[in-house]
Amino acid sequence: MKSTARAFKANVDRALVDTNLQQSLAMLKVGFSERRRQAVERLPEFEALRDRARDIKNHTLAHLDYYLETFETKVKGLGGHVHWAPTAEDARDIVLRLCREAGAKTVAKSKSMITEEIALNDHLEAHGIEPVETDLGEYIIQLRNEAPSHIIAPAVHLTKDQVADTFLEHHARHGFTRRLTERNDLVAEARQILRQRFQDADVGITGANFLVAETGSSMLVTNEGNADLSNTLPRMHIVIASIEKVIPTLEDAGTLLRVLARSATGQEWSSYTTFNTGPKREGDLDGPESYHVVLLDNGRSSVLGTEMQDILRCIRCGACMNHCPVYGAIGGHAYGWVYPGPLGAVLTPQLIGVEEAGNLPNASTFCGRCESVCPVRIPLPKLMRHWREREFERHLTPSTVRQGLSLWAFFARRPTLYRLATRVANAALSLFGRAEGHYRALPLAGGWTTHRDLPAPPPGGTFMAQWKARGGASR
Amino acid sequence: MALFVTCLVDMFRPGVGFAAVKLLEDAGCRVVVPDAQTCCGQPAYNSGDRFDAREVARGVIAAFEGFDYVVVPSGSCGGMIKHHYAGLFEDEPAMKARAEALASRTFELTSFLVDVLGVTKLDARCDARVAYHDSCSGLRELGVKTQPRTLLDSVTGVSIAELPGAEICCGFGGTFCVKYPDISNAMLDDKMAEIDASGADTLLAGDMGCLLNMAGKLSREGRTVKVRHVAEVLAGMGDEPAIGALPATEAAR
Amino acid sequence: MSAREQMLGAIRRSLRRGELPAVSRAVVDARLREHPVNIVPRRTEGSDADRVAQFEHWAAFHHASVARVDVAGVPGAVADYLKTNNLPARVAMAPDPDLDRYDWPSAPMLEIRRGKPVDADPVAVTGAFAGIAETGTLVFASGPDHPTSLNLLPETHVVVLREADVVGPIEDVFVRLRARYGEGRMPRTVNTVTGPSRTGDIEQQLELGAHGPRRMHILLVRD
Question: Which chains have at least 3 CB atom pairs separated by less than 8 Å from chain B?
């Protein structure tokens, strides 16, 4: 997927005036967080489970090479294949080669952020293979030629009416020519069309929520059941997973699933949670003839052992974006690449470069709501701050900001001068603001006064000056 | 004990400092305001400028050594000292120890009154229907949630109108609000809608940054909701002109 | 250097070590072998009867319907359910010998075909490997006696679950899987299914029957 992260501010401008988007975001801001809150309330052990989930992921990352090798051995023992892809390009080539080996014309895809990350659909299409997205949300945006705006609810930026228009436009060729107005009719029509696509597909491509080293299983969590159809009906099942998806045991999966479902959608358990282990067995009546797992690095190994390592714990639940007031204001597309919200603010600079995505870690108030809901306790604000530090070190921070900071720091480190400067500033602000009590505009303060007034200090001087004048104790 | 006034209170709302002093003295504390204080260093720290943040922190640590407690009328500055200072001195063990010592003695004002001093009742009056906004750092870094409400409940004449999104950021975020004014404004819009719906005539919070942000927006939109730091109401200073309102001298004209 | 070596090497460099030392390997191997249980919610504790009641509660919470029957009542209950809901009595049934303990001819209106379903089959009847009381979840293990597509293709899924197969948490399912298939081994597919298929992809509003069954009916069988 081509990044527009550099144009973040322009993306934001567009998003803020997009009434359909704003209508959708209004629902999202309340819906997801309220459902999560209720689910957490129903499970007294939730906080302890978050600690355990964090520990499991940390343990795995510290032994990542060994768990990957163990996983590989298990998959091979079952007649499956494991492919190692250091880069996105490697992964695309592997998948294309496998699809060609299977003689594939169409592939059924189950929603996978990894395939967005490596821009798999474009690659397959360019080589004459049609990828069909089967998750309803992903299907809708594929028809609209859009990117997902949320990692678990890709079409969350659209209203029902927009979906109805899209279906009317694209379903006519399947013989559906009536514009639908009810949600259940829209779902039913998509189900009918996609059922046929499943039957026709030669290959099923899915991501994985977890890879279990103990058993060689790849795990998929959905509510629709589309991932299961993708891994059951086609002749070949290809799983694409990034290396940090591996976990040790089934028991560890149990713990992570408990926090995943609740954090993502506020569910007790997602409707379909599936363990796939190798290809069809002897005597099985269905299932794929061949089973492939593509392990993707794409820069992740270089995050290990750094101050950013915590982001590799992420289990892609989306809670950080569901609770992010910035995401709630601008939606997912404004972030300009695959991963939006606080997760994207940390991961995107890592994957496509901080020069490209430098705005993302800066566009946060550090309100900390993301960290407070993260099921694996990733300190997202801290990691965003690390990006700001790297930008500062590399002189990517705008020079006006740098100059302002060094001027401020000059005074902040010299209390006597600072006293003097604040005294002057306070007197001026108070004097010229006294007629209104606030400023509607102020030189050099356009960022502040575009949307709000600046309250003026009341007359009488700074606190420190008044304290001194009153003879207050200072030591 | 020592009061860390914070740069925004010092500059924009000195009355908050005096309210804090009154609350602390009424509770039996001897309040000292060290002269060498400036700012906690967040502008640099959150802009990625660790060097300046560290140097400013060094000054704060020195200025506030030797007190039993350090009290801050801000969850944001309090959180900075309590949770971030030590990390600035990973390479300087001696400084790190001093930073940790300061952190252990530092408290946000309402949390200090309730959690440390055990104050639950105040002798104050303010006739107001107040909405209390939970500033992010105070709430999530310092666990300030019930303390201001406990104290407000004891103020005669105050009733609390809870905002459903009281825990959601107002859009201030330090330099964020000037770097991304349009996003900040969208967040403020949500906050304004909630304040409207609450029927509150007064908006309180424990952090000057958030208060200036929200007061500026209310003022820009011509709304009549009064904005104050919670300490002012708790200290019985709730009848002074609100943040962004006309000074008493002008209003009398 | 192969891609595999390249990736493993990069990981080890970042972790500032070579291959995992033997001592650490032994620790990790032991963890894999012993697969310690982490935190199991207390809600799964209680008597057998509590567990079954809990299963029923959570299954209903997730929009499945549940009926309690005895062994003799199963075929009639399937037929009644289909009739009450105006559904065809044409049933694709798993070729699972466990289902042979029910006297299907006692419900002659049921038109039963054993095997994997075709797309047009309106109703699937299957057993279940287990039920998870903690969340009202059904567990289906694939195999010659239970094609996975039965859990997915028909619009209605009727599941015959023995009360004895209701366990507390998912960890107890893992114990049973290891007992049946061996340590570290799994059938091709283990589906854990909680209620009917659903989506919230249009305006975050719940709609049932996105791709899998629209209706899930569970017969809890007293042994």
Answer: A
